[in-house]
């Protein structure tokens, strides 16, 4: 089972976790919980690259590889530039669209404020998760090219970087899925296995949210709703006035 316990809410993860407002005037930095997220690579090598960012090679040996099969709809695809632009506009995020894409694939732990805002938007608009490029699985060459700021002409920048994006879009093995709700995830997995072992059917497949709530105990849907209540979301660099309420 995938439980959205307090440890998940405390995690600073890409598209999910804790949003930290910078300090304003004499006030200390503020912190608010946004949403949880469960990360899945599309291939084992992608999962390994992601894990090695957080643990040493020796520590990595203590982990097992979990593979899952299932069906999950209503996923926001952030490998498509038009979708990235639409979310940026909805969240009043200004700037060069290629810079925004570069922020989404930043190797910074947990990503920058941009992925957090995108996760906030997706979860609050009823998406079950996000499909995106895996920051630590894409090639260094592609990542560097998207971050280049040598262009004086936007047309030429679009022309050249579109080729890079199209090349990235062909590499599904360098993408990942982030699912927001442990309850939805638990009810959507058909079967799973560990370290190439035998496949096991999921006894919680297609269970109702009410049934899962009983299993979750203290971490039921009421707990999740309370934890994820954000009444003010600032989207500008200075964190002074722009907001999106929930």
Evaluate the radius of gyration.
19 Å
Global shape: globular
Number of helices: 11
Mean pLDDT: 83
Euclidean distance between termini CA atoms:
28 Å
Q: What summary fits the major beta sheet?
A: 4 strands, mixed
Strand content: 15-25%
Q: Say how many strands there are.
A: 9
- Helix and strand succession? HEEEHHEEHHHEHHEHEEHH
Spatial strand arrangement across the major sheet:
3-7-6-5
Category from helices, strands and their pairing:
alpha+beta
Indicate how many domains the architecture comprises. Answer: 1
Instruction: Please give the share of residues in helix.
Output: 25-40%
Report the uncertain regions. 237-246
Keywords:
246 residues, alpha+beta, four-stranded mixed beta sheet, three-stranded antiparallel beta sheet, 9 strands, 38% helix, globular, disordered C terminus
General description of the model:
This protein is α+β, with helices and mostly antiparallel strands and 246 residues long. The chain has helices spanning 6-10, 44-51, 57-60, 81-90, 97-104, 113-124, 140-147, 154-169, 182-188, 209-216, 221-227; strands at 17-21, 30-35, 38-41, 66-70, 75-77, 129-133, 175-179, 189-194, 200-201. It is 38% helix and 17% strand. Strands 3-7-6-5 form a 4-stranded mixed beta sheet. The longest helix has 16 residues, at 154-169.
List the helices and strands and how they pair.
Layout: H1 6-10, E1 17-21, E2 30-35, E3 38-41, H2 44-51, H3 57-60, E4 66-70, E5 75-77, H4 81-90, H5 97-104, H6 113-124, E6 129-133, H7 140-147, H8 154-169, E7 175-179, H9 182-188, E8 189-194, E9 200-201, H10 209-216, H11 221-227
Parallel strand pairs: 5-6
Antiparallel strand pairs: 1-2, 3-7, 4-8, 6-7, 8-9
